[in-house]
Amino acid sequence: MENQELSTLETAKELGLIPEEYDRIKEILGRTPNFTELSIFSVMWSEHCSYKNSIVWLKKLPNKGAHLMAEAGEENAGLVDIGDGLGCCFKIESHNHPSALEPYQGAATGVGGINRDIFTMGARPIAQLNSLRFGSIENDRTKWLLKGVVKGIGDYGNAFGVPTVGGEVFFDECYQINPLVNAMSAGIVKAGETVSATSYGVGNPVYIVGSATGKDGIHGAAFASKDITEDSVNDLPAVQVGDPFQEKLLLEASLEVIKTGAVIGMQDMGAAGIICSNSEMSAKGKHGMRIDLDKVPVRQENMKPYEILLSESQERMLIVVEKGKEALVEAVFDKWDLNCAIIGEVTDTERLQYYAKGELVADVPADDLVLGGGAPVYHREYREPAYFQEFKKFNIDDVPLPKDLREVAQHLIAHPNIASKRWVSDQYDSMVGTATMTDNRPSDAAVVAVKGTNKAIALTVDCNGRYVYADPHVGTAIAVAEAARNIVCAGGEPSAITNCLNFGNPYNPEVYWQFVGAIKGMSEACLKFETPVTGGNVSFYNQSSDEGAVFPTPTIGMLGVLENAADMMTLDFKATDDLIYLIGESVNDIASSEYLASYHKIAASPAPYFDLEKEYTMQQTVKQLIANKLIVSAHDVSDGGLYITLLESAMPNNFGFAIETDSEIRKDAFLFGEGQGRVVVSVKPEQQAAFIESMATSETEFSYLGVVTSSGNVVDDEMYDTTAHAKSIYDNVFHNYLGD
Amino acid sequence: MKFGVVVFPGSNCDEDIIYTLQHIMGQDVVRLWHKDKDLQGADFIVLPGGFSFGDYLRSGAIAKFSPIMQEIISFANKGGNVLGICNGFQILTEAGLLPGALLQNKNQKFICANTYIKAETNDSLVTSQIDLNKALKIPIAHGEGNYFADADTLKKLDDNDQVLFRYCDYNGNITAESNLNGSINNIAGVSNKNRNVFGLMPHPERASNSLLANDDGLILFESILSTVY
């Protein structure tokens, strides 16, 4: 250690540490850290790894449930019992900052990282989703970002061989500089065959397997914990490069090596690379490691110790193996032609000791590096921003009723937030695995059969950042409610959620107020729907120096279960003369709707109407209708309002609709308002009596809207459009902006 | 009948075709690892879809050097039946077992979508039972599925009745709009001259299960089973 250069406070600041943190490190070590050690602390105590500015509030989220097989934060991803001796392992994660600089690799490695979190636990991924936010689609940089992100997700996920089954794309100026790229994956594992991210057993060998370690992504975790500025382009080496072929091999080899019974613990290398997996596994298993950095397979010569430790080279795993079973492990990686190197062994010191060229270059206690151990925990101050009360003054009467509502309908159909996302989804293989049930039968959530059982899982990602900005508490509760509504409309039972909390700079009290509100709203809704939070990811610093923070965007990824896959419900109208009903309450509300924001260009309004209790009751009613086979389609009312919902149900089979509005409610609110808690269903004429009888015994309001017709989109006897014409616009909006 | 499904590193539709052959068609299936040098007595070889060797260099270009390919080439040259789907088709063209090549899609993007295809001949193992007037809904999922062959080769394909499928619309009309990847003459699948090696870009195994609301692909497998053995 004598030969190692000692660090200074200046260096610590350059690495993103604050003076108090530097003092704390000196206290932990009982001496001044050298540069390698300082780098270790800087990445492990970065927001990305330590959750230091969010953990106080994350711990308040509901995380209990009889069906949870691992609690939030306990493992790399959430693990939920879905019955039949199976668990579903699922998680969502952000890759916003890399994607802002290098959209293709940023998005690709986001997909790679989230899938490793799933298979490192022993689960085979069976479905992927993503949630994307960009600035205006008319902007050339947005087009470049969108094309790159979609191609990155597609190229990686398609080659990896797991279907991308769902997602969302949303545009708003607030995401102009800082897009959001959130990737989700879900996998299936037999109960009892999961692997933990732990390390113990003195003398057990520590393996690094998969790709060689290069200089990509060094300080990536620290980079993700800063605002994006013009200088960010200088951080380009902090963006990693993905290789989906290696990931596919690593998947197969990892699942195969687990079957040998030789594995003590396994963790993928994502943020903060080797040091992160070493410290988290060692801290969990209450042991130490002695690692020889010269044994790590590297891509280039003369890599410095800190570079090897912090490298975020993709497609690597750390595996602690039971001593004596090395041959079993090595045979598997040999079969798959993957690197497999012993880089050290487990010790009883609870310290991580790194050697290079025979010399000790870093010696740090594992537990002090990690969340729940010695990593700092901060209570941030927060303050209600002035706009919040201003927005509440919104009055619908101040908004003129447009003369021609047909024109509003045309505007919304052609808006990229409403229009078909086929340009995007056609670039993703949604069918590999031959289990995606929603490719040929559209539904509000993606439904994927669990092969070998009668079950299916339903998955959805939801968040409307505009609602959350208007009211963080209500907006986030709506995100959970909408996710549950989508699961229910697909015939599933909501089970649990994962979240991706995309916010601005947490040191800004008004941003932190949004964060706190979101946590409170999520907690309230998750308790109501009995969907505990199984984990996820926090992404702060989503803002740019010149434009302020993005909309607070706590993306909710929800898992639902269908006991019998054949009971899936779909959203498309099935036959002419079927009766269309609205389940839930029509309200005189246009707040935060796409209509208000993009047609009237009014940003100052509260979150849309939402009543958690009524929403919950409404969803129970829809479940009953599906279970009793009284409806033949169900589609929730969300972005764009009722008119868009009807059109989306009409388009798949080229039907039309003829409906009547409610004279008690402003016609624009009736058609385009985004009041929550509503589902459009269609009913066979011969089942009308049974349907009405069933609804009469429920506590949910419902109203007759009209009938399914052959082609027209008719409101109050006025022909708004034909489905064929609307579809020709709706289907081609993205193509018109982005080309074929 | 015993099918042998080859698993290359990067194959990712291997389990799907195995599931279809085993669970839906009720056939025996053996997995053949690319490093194997023995076909384990399989009567019919399938090269599945996916990204063998990451599709690096060129789709199928590296896979043709896997040890098992030598066995498959000699098996095919002796008249053994080989079907390549998607990446499997690409490998068979790279290995010289099928004519033509698969270029990048005309829009230079990966395309995953339902397409319609029409069988052109009943004189092949995989199309023997197919109604030649019926458009089958079979999905594609590829970045390089744009079939190309020079004029001489195309003439030979036609003269020898080697075109198995062409892309068409819902009504069976062979149109430019229905040819998403830009394949020459809408060609979706071909056989070799000896009619024992078959390749197609669409994935019939993705259209063989009523749970997924599409079983138009079953007729290909039923054709294989009805014609031989």
TrEMBL record, chain A:
Enzyme Commission code(s) on record: 6.3.5.3
Pathway: Purine metabolism; IMP biosynthesis via de novo pathway; 5-amino-1-(5-phospho-D-ribosyl)imidazole from N(2)-formyl-N(1)-(5-phospho-D-ribosyl)glycinamide: step 1/2
Subcellular localization: Cytoplasm
Residues annotated as binding ATP: 51, 91, 499, 536
Residues of the active site: 48, 95
Catalysis: reaction(s): N(2)-formyl-N(1)-(5-phospho-beta-D-ribosyl)glycinamide + L-glutamine + ATP + H2O = 2-formamido-N(1)-(5-O-phospho-beta-D-ribosyl)acetamidine + L-glutamate + ADP + phosphate + H(+)
The protein's name: Phosphoribosylformylglycinamidine synthase subunit PurL
UniProt domain PurM-like C-terminal: residue ranges: 202-353, 577-713
Protein family (similarity comment): Belongs to the FGAMS family.
UniProt keyword terms in alphabetical order: ATP-binding, Cytoplasm, Ligase, Magnesium, Metal-binding, Nucleotide-binding, Purine biosynthesis
Phosphoribosylformylglycinamidine synthase linker domain span: 7-52
Organism name: Albibacterium bauzanense
GO MF annotation terms: ATP binding; magnesium ion binding; phosphoribosylformylglycinamidine synthase activity
Positions contributing to substrate binding: 94-97, 116, 240, 312-314, 539
Residue numbers binding Mg(2+) 1: 93, 537
Gene that this sequence comes from: purL
An example Gene Ontology biological process: 'de novo' IMP biosynthetic process
TrEMBL record, chain B:
Location of the protein in the cell: Cytoplasm
A GO BP annotation: 'de novo' IMP biosynthetic process
Keyword match Zinc: no
Entry's Gene Ontology molecular function annotations: ATP binding; glutaminase activity; phosphoribosylformylglycinamidine synthase activity
InterPro entries per record: Class_I_gatase-like, PRibForGlyAmidine_synth_PurQ
Catalytic activity from the UniProt record: N(2)-formyl-N(1)-(5-phospho-beta-D-ribosyl)glycinamide + L-glutamine + ATP + H2O = 2-formamido-N(1)-(5-O-phospho-beta-D-ribosyl)acetamidine + L-glutamate + ADP + phosphate + H(+); L-glutamine + H2O = L-glutamate + NH4(+)
Entry EC no(s): 6.3.5.3, 3.5.1.2
Recorded superkingdom: Bacteria
GO cellular component, as recorded: cytoplasm
Keywords: ATP-binding, Cytoplasm, Glutamine amidotransferase, Hydrolase, Ligase, Nucleotide-binding, Purine biosynthesis
Pathway: Purine metabolism; IMP biosynthesis via de novo pathway; 5-amino-1-(5-phospho-D-ribosyl)imidazole from N(2)-formyl-N(1)-(5-phospho-D-ribosyl)glycinamide: step 1/2
Keyword Glycosyltransferase on entry: no
Function: Part of the phosphoribosylformylglycinamidine synthase complex involved in the purines biosynthetic pathway. Catalyzes the ATP-dependent conversion of formylglycinamide ribonucleotide (FGAR) and glutamine to yield formylglycinamidine ribonucleotide (FGAM) and glutamate. The FGAM synthase complex is composed of three subunits. PurQ produces an ammonia molecule by converting glutamine to glutamate. PurL transfers the ammonia molecule to FGAR to form FGAM in an ATP-dependent manner.
NCBIfam families in the cross-refs: FGAM_synth_I (TIGR01737), PRK03619.1 (NF002957)
Subunit note: Part of the FGAM synthase complex composed of 1 PurL, 1 PurQ and 2 PurS subunits.
Record's protein name: Phosphoribosylformylglycinamidine synthase subunit PurQ
Record organism: Albibacterium bauzanense
Lineage, uppermost ranks: Bacteria, Pseudomonadati, Bacteroidota, Sphingobacteriia, Sphingobacteriales
Underlying gene: purQ
